[in-house]
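Internal tracking record. Fields below are filled automatically when a chain is submitted to the structure queue. Please do not edit lines marked as system-generated. If the sequence contains nonstandard residues, flag them in the REMARKS field before resubmitting.
Queue: standard
Priority: normal
Entity type: single polypeptide chain
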Amino acid sequence: MLYFIPTPIGNLEDISLRAIKILRECEIAICEDTRVCKSLINLLNERFDASINISKFIPLHTHNENDFFVNLSDNFFSKNVAYMSDAGMPGISDPGVSLVRYAQKNNIEYEILSGANAALLSVVASGLCDKEFVFLGFLPNTGRDRALSIQNALNLAYPAVVYESPKRILGLVQSITNLEPEREIFAIKEATKKFETKFKDRAKNLVQILEKANLSGEWAIVISKSDKTATQNITKDEILSLDLAPKVKAKLLNKITGEDVKKIYDELTKA
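SYSTEM-GENERATED OUTPUT FOLLOWS
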């Protein structure tokens, strides 16, 4: 059996009793980073007397995915196997999704445990989401792709959740300020940890606040929805049925979906 086990995003006490129970039954751990995984197991054993005795730790990350799956033996999952990312829910901005797809393709029994997730925590803490939101994960680091991703986030009819590093958080808010200085933003760093800090303000004000703040730690950001939402009542099918050039349709669809204009245009011209 393959188990996907959420790990604490900061506070060790967020590990669930069920997660500890399953880890006791597992012989193998597939890890985003084996060092982080081993450290977590040691802490759980020390603080909670968890009695976890995993004998084998195997790395699975974006740089070794192909080799990992090629070298799997037929009986690998005859034992209880745990997958753990460095922090949070497996498959959310980490390599876990490739393992889910492998299990589905090869009829391997698997189970996902519920647990800590920074995106959901930030959504609730922000007060910006009535119901729907869009999760964008980590944006591209630099260049035109990053600029387009930020613009797409600002065009959405729903709040957008973004993960960001301490090196780029100030630049992200500055970029938003340059485009829409009045856009409301919520940001949280070091969620669930001792020095958790929350910020909420207009983009132009938040830049000034962050310039004076300690930016160390991992960040989750919630960008309020666009107030230019007149197009959200128009459906995708209605736009597709219009007698308009593909380029124009692509721009309209971008406004209501947030998808990349070029990608939409390519799909329209292939049809």
